[in-house]
Amino acid sequence: IEFSGNINGTIKAATVNLKPSAFVKGTVSGDTVTIEGEVDGDIQAKDVFIKSTAKIKGTIRYTNIDIQNGSIINADLFFSS
Predict the structure, then answer these.
(1) Number of other CB atoms surrounding residue 9 within 10 Å
(2) Fewer CB within a 10 Å sphere, N or C end of the chain?
(3) Residue 49 to residue 52: CA distance in whole angstroms
(4) Does residue 42 sit in helix, strand or coil?
(5) Are 71 and 52 in contact (CB under 8 A)?
(6) What is the distance between the alpha carbons of residues 47 and 65, in angstroms, rounded to a whole number?
(7) Separation of alpha carbons 11 and 59, rounded Å
(8) Pairwise CA distance, residues 53 & 73, whole Å
(9) Tell me, what DSSP letter sits at residue 14?
(10) Is 45 exposed, middle or buried (0-12, 13-18, 19+ CB in 10 A)?
């Protein structure tokens, strides 16, 4: 799923791409999650890709994570195998 709007709630799919204009207040989960926009809540994924335009506040649970320079992250990070 590609998402570029605003939502209060949950986004769950095998692959989630949050575009730069996206704002999610809630939970984002999937096998692969790419964040270019803003998340205020929890992210849970096997593979997390945080792009330079991302702003994240909350909790990130991941197996693999890639964080680009320029992203703003105020979150607790938890590795899970």
Answers:
(1) 10
(2) C
(3) 10
(4) strand
(5) yes
(6) 6
(7) 15
(8) 11
(9) S
(10) buried
Separation of alpha carbons 44 and 21, rounded Å: 20
Whole-number Å distance between alpha carbons of 80 and 45:
9
Q: Which of 59, 60, 40 is nearest to 49 (CA)?
A: 60
- C-alpha of 45 from chain center: 8
Residue 46: strand pairing partners? none
pLDDT of residue 10: 97
Burial class (CB in 10 A: 0-12, 13-18, 19+), 53: middle
Which residue is associated with the tokens 């938890």? 78
Rounded Cα gap, residues 78 and 60, in angstroms: 6
CB atoms within 10 A of CB 62: 19
